[in-house]
Design a protein that fits this description.
Elements: E1 2-3, H1 7-20, E2 28-29, H2 38-48, E3 51-58, H3 63-74, E4 79-84, H4 94-100, H5 105-120
Helix pairs in contact: 1-5
Length: 121
């Protein structure tokens, strides 16, 4: 699970749920898109065979797309992307906004399972 910002903590919570279900996950805090830590990403994905990107930003032009581009060029593997899908930001309580845009622990867990299923297909 590659995460940025607040999503790192949610990824840690998701990792605990996945572990209870017998699924081992690796979490890497990717704090910048440029420069993108290509070496860490490729090393992790080569080990796990799939990935989830979780960010509290727009998907377009974000972390997930940067990782997708890197994987396409170097090591094509299943990738699920969690982020804001082409919506304008709004005001509200952070927990409510994260839930509204699908940026939750549950979404990370389900995305990890989807990536694993695609890897094993």
């Amino acid at each position: 699970i590659f995460a940025t910002g607040h999503m790192v903590w949610l990824a840690i919570e998701a990792e605990a749920i996945l572990a209870e279900q017998g699924i081992s996950a690796e979490i890497i805090n990717i704090h910048t898109i440029k420069p993108l830590d290509a070496e860490a990403i490729l090393k992790s994905v080569d080990k796990t065979g799939c990935a989830v990107s979780a960010e509290e930003h727009q998907i377009a032009g974000g972390l997930g797309e940067s990782i997708a581009s890197l994987l396409t060029r170097n090591s094509p593997k299943p990738l699920e992307i969690i982020g804001v899908d082409d919506s304008f930001g709004e005001s509200g309580k952070p927990v409510e906004l994260l839930a509204k845009y699908g940026l939750s622990v549950e979404n990370i867990v389900e995305s990890a399972k989807k990536a694993i299923a695609r890897k094993n297909a």
